[in-house]
Design brief:
- There is one protein chain.
- This protein is mainly β.
- The protein has a single domain, classed as Jelly Rolls, CATH 2.60.120.
- Helices cover about 10% and strands about 45% of the residues.
- It has a five-stranded antiparallel beta sheet with strand order 1-2-9-4-7, covered by helices on one side.
- Strand 1 and strand 2 form a beta hairpin.
- The radius of gyration is 14 Å and the shape is globular.
- About 20% of the residues are buried.
- The N terminus is likely disordered.
């Protein structure tokens, strides 16, 4: 069991976007991951973006829903106006849409993200 959890953590970490060396590191912690009907996987991730941090422009192969726990995140989202989300608010990102979360606030951002992806696919793909 311990080896499978470690292997899963390594797979998920390798699937997350790369970041600029000078930007504060974004931390993602997989809280739960389960295979579901239709050949898909449901993954719940705690996302922490430090002050001044940014995720880098990226996409997901399936939809994403995020709930803001603390701090604020500015979402640059393809085809939509930039919006800053605060504690208690949620947002949704469609499959394949380019977006990026940026912490322009004075405290770390923490949110809970739920992904539904095709089984075996990476959660995130970095976009240049």
């Amino acid at each position: 069991m311990r080896k499978s959890v470690l292997a899963l953590a390594l797979v998920v970490a390798s699937a997350l976007p790369a970041f600029a060396a000078d930007a504060p590191a974004v931390v993602r912690k997989v809280l739960q991951q389960n295979d579901i009907a239709g050949g898909q996987t449901l993954t719940v991730v705690e996302v922490t973006i430090p002050v001044g941090g940014r995720e880098g422009r990226h996409t997901h192969p399936g939809p994403l829903a995020l709930y803001v726990i603390s701090g604020a995140v500015s979402l640059d989202h393809e085809g939509k106006a930039n919006i800053t989300y605060k504690p208690g608010q949620t947002f949704f990102v469609e499959s394949g849409k380019v977006h990026e979360g940026i912490n322009r606030g004075a405290v770390p951002f923490v949110g809970i993200a739920t992904f539904i992806t095709p089984k075996g696919q990476a959660l995130t793909t970095q976009v240049k």
